[in-house]
Design a protein that fits this description.
Shape: elongated
Order of helices and strands: EEHH
Oligomer: single chain
Strand order of the largest sheet: 1-2
Distance between the termini: 21 Å
Structural class: alpha+beta
């Protein structure tokens, strides 16, 4: 799975940041890095995705299973 951070800025200047490809709490470190880059920004909402609750082993098994399934 590829680690990805998607940053979106809407026309009003609201920034949305989504981290994916890195299950577990490590993604929170990535989000904190983005916050330090945008000085003066305030977090108005934060939500954990289902990927946050997965372990690296679960993700690897899912990727392997999907790979096997698509070959059939």
């Amino acid at each position: 799975m590829t680690k990805r951070i998607t940053v979106t800025v809407n026309p009003h200047g609201m920034i949305t940041v989504t981290a994916s490809g890195q299950p577990g709490p490590k993604c929170l470190d990535e989000m904190a890095t983005i916050q330090t880059l945008v000085q003066g920004a305030t977090v108005v909402d934060s939500r954990l995705t289902p990927e946050f609750h997965q372990t690296a082993t679960e993700t690897a098994v899912q990727e392997q299973w999907l790979g096997e399934d698509t070959e059939k």
